[in-house]
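Might you be able to consider the sequence and fold that I enclose below?
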Amino acid sequence: MSEASIPNLALTVGPQEDRHRSSKRLGFMLLLPIIIAAMELIVSLIEPRVLSGHNLVNVLVQSSYLLLFASAQMIVILTGGFDLSLGMAVSVNSVAIALVTTALAATGVSPWLLVVVGIVACIVVGLLVGTFNGFFVSRLGINPFIVTLGSLNICYGLATTISGGRPVFNVPDVISLVFYDGTIIPGVPTPVILAVVVAVLLYLLLDWTVFGRALYLIGGNPRAANLAGIPGKRYLFLAYITCSLLAAFGSLMLTARTGSGEPNLGGGLMLESIAAAVIGGVSLQGGIGGIIPVIFGSVFVTALSNAMDLLEVGGYVQQILLGCVIIAAIFLDRVRATRS
């Protein structure tokens, strides 16, 4: 079967039908805005600051970062996998960006060249991590849990080794200007704008390209994907590269915010990104999910964390509560799966 026939087959046999069958499940997740609003109103009875304009903008900005990482997880979860290395990949990316840009800044080059170099460093590291994960998962057929657990440790070792276990300070101000402090649309934080652009591109990628439709079919119905002539290994490989590139861009944005390369920058991102994706309706069984519910999932996780911070809930207790929320979301996903 020729590859030219893939678009029509993918359109008629798999992903579109899968998404129609899952519309009720994703529709359930659209209740998240109501849940978020109710949570904020209840918390405001105890801590009024939660509804202050400054705090709401802060939640929106923090959600923008998490959205990038949750979207990255969504891409691979759609195929029936996940990426445990995401958090440490963010760390090694941050350190690499900081080391390269600070070294180059000392030579007195143009500030805008530093921006280009920072982006290139981000892409290169993202491609390396994605290629490593994608090769072993797609080409050698090794379980994603084992592969990404291994790359997690590799990335952690690299981040701490090349940084000496310490933050890399003095990242050029132009990086923060472009990806954090700058003004693209007056009154709208730059991270929010960048996250919206990425969300729109992902929506188009998943709903209007062969690659996106193939991801749904590979995760939801591998046999149908095989019958449709879809090169599953190739798309699975590209899924892990896409995941790593999204995480790398998120790392660039976080580095711009902190102004330094942090070897522990992505410490809790693996758990939070999976939580936001699952709460946003992405099924761990594969084949079901969408960028709009993931946006709500990211806002929910961020708003929950923000509320617990304002209520002075301890960090360890927050981890316990977040773990409980993830388990509850997975349980609801299983319940909806049995009823669909």
